[in-house]
Amino acid sequence: MKRQAPQPDLLGPRPSRVTSAAQRRADARAAFDALPEVVRNATWAHLDHLLIDARWVFAKTMPDNPHAYTHSRTWPSRAAFSWTVEMIRLLGEREKYAGRYYTVLVRNGFKHWTMNWPTAMTILINRKPPGDVC
């Protein structure tokens, strides 16, 4: 006897990857917002400390998009750099630049973003004044 494939309506609609990614970001942000205020404030303070203390270099190869970057090898530890990347992605807002979306976090008078690589492969964090488009 030949088995029939399940009917699509029995399985429900297939989730969109875009919707799923957006939902995961929203869920992660809601979890952060649900933390006690003292924990959130300590997290913001630690993030600010790491971003302020980072060694920033002007990106001279991109004069049409003036910005600075910090390289992971200049950080005290890869763990601190990776944590900062994750926090930018968790707490930032989506922004479109040149047809691509980036997650941008505005802190300490700058907008910060990464290049959307997996965290383990990310080696740069970029920044520029918030009035400029990233």
Helices and strands in order, then pairings?
Blueprint: H1 8-11, H2 17-33, H3 37-53, E1 57-58, E2 68-71, H4 78-91, E3 93-97, E4 100-107, E5 110-113, E6 124-128
Antiparallel strand pairs: 1-2, 2-6, 3-4, 4-5, 5-6
Keywords:
134 residues; alpha+beta; six-stranded antiparallel β-sheet; 39% helix; globular
What does this structure look like?
It is a single chain. This protein is α+β, with helices and mostly antiparallel strands and 134 residues long. It has one domain (16-128). The protein is 39% helix and 21% strand. The chain contains 4 helices and 6 strands, in the order H-H-H-E-E-H-E-E-E-E. It has helices at 8-11, 17-33, 37-53, 78-91, and strands at residues 57-58, 68-71, 93-97, 100-107, 110-113, 124-128. A 6-stranded antiparallel β-sheet has the order 1-2-6-5-4-3, covered by helices on one side. Strand 3 (93-97) and strand 4 (100-107) form a beta hairpin. The longest helix has 17 residues, at 17-33. It is globular. The N and C termini lie far apart (60 Å). The mean pLDDT is 88.
SSE sequence, one letter per element: HHHEEHEEEE
Q: Quick one: biggest sheet?
A: 6 strands, antiparallel
**Percentage of residues in helical conformation:** 25-40%
Structural class comes to alpha+beta
Shape: globular
User: Count the helices. How many?
Assistant: 4
Calculate Rg over CA atoms.
Answer: 19 Å
Mean of all residue-level pLDDT scores:
88
- Total tally of structural domains: 1
Residue windows where pLDDT falls under 50 for at least 5 positions: none
Extended strand count = 6
- Beta-strand content: 15-25%
- Strand arrangement across the biggest beta sheet: 1-2-6-5-4-3
Distance between the termini: 60 Å
Identify the quaternary structure here: single chain
